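Morning run. Coffee first, then this:
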Amino acid sequence: QQETPVDSNVQYQPKDIDKMLAPYPYQHYQRWCSLTTHITPTTVTRLQPQCTLIHAATPLLANPHAEQDVARATSGEDKLDANFIQDDSQVMRFSKVDKKRATVGYTAAQLTEYYMDTTSALNSLIEQSGTEEELLGELQISFVVFLLGHVYSAFEQWKLLVDTICRAQQSLVQRPNFYKAFIRTLHFHLKETPSDFFVDIVSRNNFLVTTLKSLFEGLREDEGVNSELRSRGEKFRTHLEKYYSWDFSYCEDDDPVVVET
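And here it is:
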């Protein structure tokens, strides 16, 4: 079948085909763009479940070894959980943070620094993602999947990424452009959440205040930090203190005990 020639003089307007599409809330278009600036087709292909469908609740399968696992379970809840296994083909394929990183031969002082500064974990995440841009895309897609799909595991991944990025002190000097983009990304994420959203209902501690305090202290104290990045971080901190009434002031009691031997 011969294709109908397209008149090059006709300008394409997206709204011209609205009558053939479902209603689109144009008033939210800019918000959506702000939340997805780093998400690419590669990001979606890499992170989406193998089945390409996103489920709010993790799909489960019958455990073929349920009888043995139930026998080893120590509580009623564990016995119930032992009857099922997660269907890995239907869960998001997020990057992993290696919590058992090799530290053989490290001194006590090196171990302290290793677990205080998450630079090596951040480097690992960027290596898994492929680029800094792709890791920012993963940060955005984890937030969007939680925001729209109510997938709690996506929120846990978002928290993990934010915490790792904020506590990677050496990376503040090594990756200034990455951190500028991160601050902008986080700014738009916080605009979508209420001020008390990150407060633990048991401990009353605010996860994000604690995490961001590490970021702001690193930006302020490290002389090698890019001046534009330091300025952007200061403006972000001021905005959060004013809008959310969060307190990022320095307190000696927050300092960890550093082992030097």
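The two ends are 79 Å apart (CA to CA). Good start to the day.
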